[in-house]
Amino acid sequence: MVPGAVKILVAGGFGVGKTTMVGSVSEIAPLRTEEHLTQAGIEVDSLDGVREKSATTVALDFGRITLRADLVLYLFGTPGQFRFWFMWDDLALGALGAIVLVDTRRLEAGFAAVDFFEQRGIPFAVGVNCFHGRRDRTAEDVRLALDLDPGVPVVLCDVRERDSSKELLLALLDRVHQEALAESR
């Protein structure tokens, strides 16, 4: 039996933890297309709030989770820098839903990803990546700041931890399920 495939995107701005999330939940060694940040990129990519960052995704990250013998979840992490966003449309083709990761130190970086999925009608959940245990905002604070619809799940998480990333994925899958039920009525 060939397993069915479900595609989920992990998106967000530069340095929010997309590569880390894909790696934390993938059952296989994730495919990563990271390159070292160079002096030449300083003029293009602001490191404000992410000074410790030394590498960046230039194409995509890829991971896999087997949910059942007949169902596999494929995770595609998008590049975060605006100059690579031309790839997002192709990556979004056939996606069941998306995770939008945000960092409360740079919430404004989340607007473009939220807009991207809203404009395409792709269900998404927002993961507030609480770097180093920082919880300086509540889920409701983030919902208001990003002007999210009430149905969009907002989950405080630490994507370095497998269980935390799984909780975020489950929130997304629950939203997708709820929307499918509403459409079938």
Q: Distance N terminus to C terminus?
A: 31 Å
Morphology call: globular
Query: What is the structural class?
Result: alpha/beta
SSE succession: EHEEEHEHEHEH
Q: Major beta sheet, specifics? A: 7 strands, mixed
- Main-sheet strand order equals 2-3-4-1-5-6-7
| Poorly predicted runs | none
Please provide the count of β strands: 7
> Helix proportion of residues, in percent?
25-40%
In DSSP terms (H or I, runs of 4 or more residues), the helix count works out at 5
**Overall pLDDT level:** 84
> What's the Cα radius of gyration?
16 Å
Report the β-strand fraction as a percent range.
25-35%
Structure description:
The protein has helices at 18-25, 88-92, 111-120, 139-145, 162-184, and strands at 4-12, 31-36, 55-68, 71-77, 97-102, 124-129, 154-157. It is globular. The protein is α/β, with parallel strands linked by helices. Helices cover 29% and strands 28% of the residues.
